[in-house]
């Protein structure tokens, strides 16, 4: 039993050691190091990096070309790509021979943004063999606003290496994190309408509760100031009747009586033959 206990303790110690090493490695995982002195980085750049935190654990790939000129690009935001320990944030892999080229490193990061875009730049990549005065490669990732996806559509656009200096690889990607916050602005009319509707709701509900709980009213009598609103309704109806009626209210009769003054004087001789003899 003693050897068994000793073996179990050894396994337990090894397991704890592995967990501690793993946690230590995760705690020391490299992240973006902004260009400039440590502790004196731009507050704006730090805010943009914090805004992009949801992308840190994601990896993006894109393959371009055909035949022998086929390349795959792997990109991560403020994290090292694959098993690289040199701070590679974006690499190019030649699918023909498997050669890997570091396009940019996270330990030389520059980032800035606009209203609906973020520009992420990794410097310090592998040196060119003959182009661009053999300077180090640089990756420029243009992240555009797309409110329908957290991140996607990572694609290389082109490589600028015809210049003597400041050559770069340009990439594009969509992300909702690049979008400016949506701010709803209410017009004056909307504010007044909301305020009026709120006051009406408070008046009706408060009056209903008062009439029911305090006065003890039932049915339609629970409506606050019922008699007043009925009078208002009648007045409104009368006003509509007065304005909108197409015929006058007192229509003259279609016939007229004949007055005594309109009758002519008739001769008494016309009835003489009717008298008895």
Describe what you observe in this structure.
This protein is α+β, with helices and mostly antiparallel strands. The protein contains 4 helices and 8 strands; from the N terminus they run H-H-E-E-E-E-E-E-E-E-H-H. Strands 1-2-3-4-5-6-8-7 form an 8-stranded mixed β-sheet, covered by helices on one side. The chain has helices spanning 2-27, 43-51, 188-215, 226-244; strands spanning 59-64, 71-76, 88-94, 100-113, 117-124, 139-145, 152-160, 168-175.
Shape: elongated
Radius of gyration using CA atoms only: 45 Å
Which structural class is indicated by helix and strand composition?
A: alpha+beta
| SSE pattern, N- to C-terminal | HHEEEEEEEEHH
In oligomeric terms, what are we looking at? single chain
Give the strand order, joined by hyphens, for the main sheet.
1-2-3-4-5-6-8-7
Q: Helicity level, as a percent range?
A: 25-40%
Name the features.
single chain, 277 residues, eight-stranded mixed sheet, 4 helices, disordered N terminus
Please give the structural blueprint.
Elements: H1 2-27, H2 43-51, E1 59-64, E2 71-76, E3 88-94, E4 100-113, E5 117-124, E6 139-145, E7 152-160, E8 168-175, H3 188-215, H4 226-244
Parallel strand pairs: 6-8
Antiparallel strand pairs: 1-2, 2-3, 3-4, 4-5, 5-6, 7-8
């Amino acid at each position: 039993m003693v050897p068994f206990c000793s073996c179990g303790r050894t396994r337990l110690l090894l397991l704890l050691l592995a967990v501690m090493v793993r946690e230590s490695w995760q705690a020391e995982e490299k992240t973006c190091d902004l260009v400039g002195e440590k502790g004196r980085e731009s507050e704006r750049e730090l805010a943009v990096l914090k805004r992009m935190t949801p992308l840190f654990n994601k990896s993006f790939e894109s393959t371009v070309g055909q035949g022998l000129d086929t390349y795959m690009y792997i990109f991560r935001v403020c994290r090292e790509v694959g098993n690289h320990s040199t701070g590679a944030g974006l690499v190019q892999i030649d699918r023909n021979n498997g050669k890997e080229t570091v396009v940019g490193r996270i330990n030389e990061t520059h980032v800035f943004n606009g209203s609906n875009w973020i520009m992420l730049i990794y410097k310090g990549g592998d040196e060119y063999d003959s182009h661009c005065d053999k300077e180090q490669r640089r990756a420029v990732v243009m992240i555009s606003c797309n409110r329908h996806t957290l991140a996607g559509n990572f694609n290389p656009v082109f490589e600028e290496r015809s210049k003597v200096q400041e050559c770069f690889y340009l990439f594009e990607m969509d992300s909702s994190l690049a979008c400016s916050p949506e701010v709803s602005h209410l017009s004056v009319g909307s504010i007044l309408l909301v305020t009026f509707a709120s006051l009406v709701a408070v008046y009706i509900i408060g009056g209903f509760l008062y009439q029911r709980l305090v006065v003890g009213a039932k049915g339609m009598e629970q409506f606050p100031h019922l008699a007043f609103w009925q009078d208002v309704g009648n007045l409104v109806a009368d006003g509509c009747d007065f304005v909108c009626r197409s015929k006058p209210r007192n229509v003259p009769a279609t016939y007229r009586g004949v007055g005594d003054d309109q009758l002519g004087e008739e001769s008494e001789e016309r009835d003489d033959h009717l008298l008895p003899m």
